[in-house]
Amino acid sequence: MSVINWQWLLVISSSLIFFFLSPLAKTTDEFFKATHKNKAPNTLMLTGSLIISWIFAKSITIAANLGLSYGLVGGVAYAGYYLSFAVAGVVLYKIRVNGKYESIHHFLISKFGKSAMTIFSLLIAFRLFNEVWSNTMVIGSYFGETGSSNYYWAIVVFTFLTLSYAVKGGLSSSIFTDVIQMVLFGILLCIILWNIFSVEDFNVSNVLQSGTWSFDLGLNLFFAAIIQSFSYPFHDPVLTDRAFISSPKVTRKSFLWASVLGALCIILFSIIGVFAKEQGFSGQAAVQVGKFFGVLVLLVINFIMITSAASTLDSTFSSFSKLLVLDLGAKNSLTFGRAVMIAVAILGTLPVFLDAEILSATTISGTMVIGLTPVFIFWKKDVPKMSFFLSVITGVIFGFLLVFKSFPTSLIFTTGKYADLLWVNIWGISSCIILYLIPSWIKK
């Protein structure tokens, strides 16, 4: 049996198993808040769900490729984004306990009004919309060349199968399957690393000495990731939805553990790229390493991509449904919630059949949401409503300056790839914070 046929078997069989094992949501609390027998997810379940919902197919592909380009520094740089969990865990804990807010939307409406909540909802709706096609395209690429019939069929079938169990249980299904997917990810990653370190002349010292700790060889990205971690998590409902379903203490503990363990998973996966660099490979690191070890390891790598993409996709469907039904106050019913999932699955898949440049134009980048930093970090500070709009709009402007490469090079003080990303974020976040605070200074 060919590799492609094995992959089809893995996709279909794993999805069917998840469908039959997933709990059937019979109440809106089960569907939107993941309660099971009136109990919220515990620390272990929530931590596993957080990690695997962020270790999506696109991110581990990037982690491996950064390992190939920059060695261990590349993996550590990308792992910097996992500071987001710690930041969100601490801030949202305080928002719940000290502020008595029940959701991010509750906080935004109370402090900045409905217009602010509408703008925020548009940002996260775009984010969720992007999550659908960006992950399914990675899956499609493992079945055929971009634009081939195999590529499109894989995307359509994978999306449908994931949707089927997401519709069955909502967020309950998502968290339940996340735990299974996290265990699978751990086992499969161990198999890959075992094979890599079994190769003669490749050991831990090769990994530790594989990169140069300089700005132009990875540290630009590392510091940009750290800076973005103070805004990035708040525009990701897949992450923030999980901050309001368990008790505040369980939530904070889960987020802090997810920050450490998630970063570790990314660094370990980047070793695939480090190995590829040592072997002189080029192209997609994970694919090349899979081919080097043969069919079995290639299938293991592909299965990691499948499980990680599925975990992100079912979480995306759940979050979009919750956004419309609970956060924006649409019809609160299971039927409507499930209908929203089906709609976003269809609409989120359509861009796959469009031009790649159109996809890039619809992406909300991490830089575009840096304006959320003072909104959440200084959540307790009394500021006029105008502060929200000044900060958020400024962040979007800096995001566009980066996208269209219009940022003045005289304000970039390091060299190499990602230098523009780092300095646009440094100047951008500084501007956002100042503009956020100015209205309160004038008020005084």
From TrEMBL:
Q: Which InterPro entries match?
A: Na/Glc_symporter_sf (IPR038377), Na/solute_symporter (IPR001734)
- Tagged with keyword Transmembrane: yes
**Cellular localization per UniProt:** Membrane
Q: Which Gene3D superfamilies match?
A: Sodium/glucose cotransporter
In alphabetical order, the GO MF annotations are: transmembrane transporter activity
Keyword Transmembrane helix set for record = yes
Q: What GO cellular component entries does it have? A: membrane
Bilayer topology term: Multi-pass membrane protein
Recite the UniProt keywords alphabetically: Membrane, Transmembrane, Transmembrane helix
One Pfam entry name: SSF
Which spans are transmembrane here? Answer: 6-24, 44-64, 70-92, 112-130, 150-167, 179-197, 217-234, 255-276, 292-313, 334-353, 359-379, 386-404, 424-442
* Family to which the UniProt record says this protein belongs: Belongs to the sodium:solute symporter (SSF) (TC 2.A.21) family.
Q: What is this protein called?
A: Sodium:solute symporter
Organism from which the protein derives = Neotamlana sedimentorum
